[in-house]
Design a protein that fits this description.
The structure is a single chain. The protein is α/β, with parallel strands linked by helices. It contains 8 helices and 7 strands; from the N terminus they run βαβββαβααβααααβ. A 7-stranded mixed β-sheet has the order 2-3-1-4-5-6-7, with helices on both faces. Strand 2 and strand 3 form a beta hairpin. Helix 6 packs across helix 8. The two termini are about 30 Å apart. The mean pLDDT is about 85.
Length: about 220
């Protein structure tokens, strides 16, 4: 029986490297022999607007991936979120029992800053944790931005840390799609697509994400 498509949602804001993450995921799956469709919707991204990416991977190349790059609501098996509000906002795309990997520290939208509003992301993380308790999320991995970036010594690779954590979640779960998004293949893709001076810190970021074990839910 052919595997259905594996659907990944990537959610963040402009400047966080979300578009690069979408490209890395797509190229990794392509290098593993899968058929891939991807797309992103960008709302004033250069000014801190939301970025929502869709990556649809088909091991067989003969399912709905060939019809649309956009993932229907309730059909994503993996959500990678770069910011708590954006993660929770994108959660509606997830099916029951999805994997969720999220950064924990908020990034204040420009409009909220102008109005002197504030939020700390705790309510959004608590909502995701409750979904994990209720079984809506099968595994929730929370990445503490500042701790990870301080340890890494490179503040522009949160996106790759999150990718490393997501790939490891698939590997540990025994997902049949793990072989299409392997750590080894992602290393090769990073070497091919990332500017040479950033390759080494991004490879370290990928390995750091792979070793993360902070889980909630």
């Amino acid at each position: 029986m052919a595997l259905e498509s594996f659907n990944i949602i990537v959610s963040g804001v402009g400047g966080q490297g979300t578009v690069l993450s979408i490209k890395l995921l797509a190229e990794c799956a392509l290098a593993s022999g899968a058929a891939v469709r991807s797309a992103e919707t960008i709302g004033m991204a250069q000014r801190g607007g939301g970025v929502l990416g869709h990556v649809r991977i088909s091991p067989q190349g003969n399912d709905p991936v060939s019809h649309s790059p956009l993932i229907p609501l309730g059909q994503a098996q993996l959500l990678i979120g770069f910011e708590p509000v954006e993660t929770l906002r994108a959660y509606r795309y997830c099916r029951q029992g999805a994997f969720v990997v999220t950064a924990t520290e908020p990034l204040m939208p420009p409009t909220a800053s102008l109005q002197r509003l504030s939020y700390d992301g705790k309510a959004q993380l608590e909502a995701l944790e409750q979904e994990a308790v209720n079984g809506g999320i099968s595994q929730l991995v929370c990445v503490e931005n500042s701790t990870v970036m301080s340890s890494l010594g490179f503040d522009k690779a949160l996106n790759v840390v999150l990718l490393g954590a997501a790939l490891e979640v698939l590997n540990e779960s025994g997902s049949p799609y793990a072989s299409l998004l392997s750590h080894e293949t992602m290393c090769d893709v990073i070497k091919a697509l990332v500017k040479q001076r950033y390759v080494e810190p991004n490879l370290r970021a990928l390995e750091m994400g792979r070793k993360l074990r902070e889980q909630r839910g």
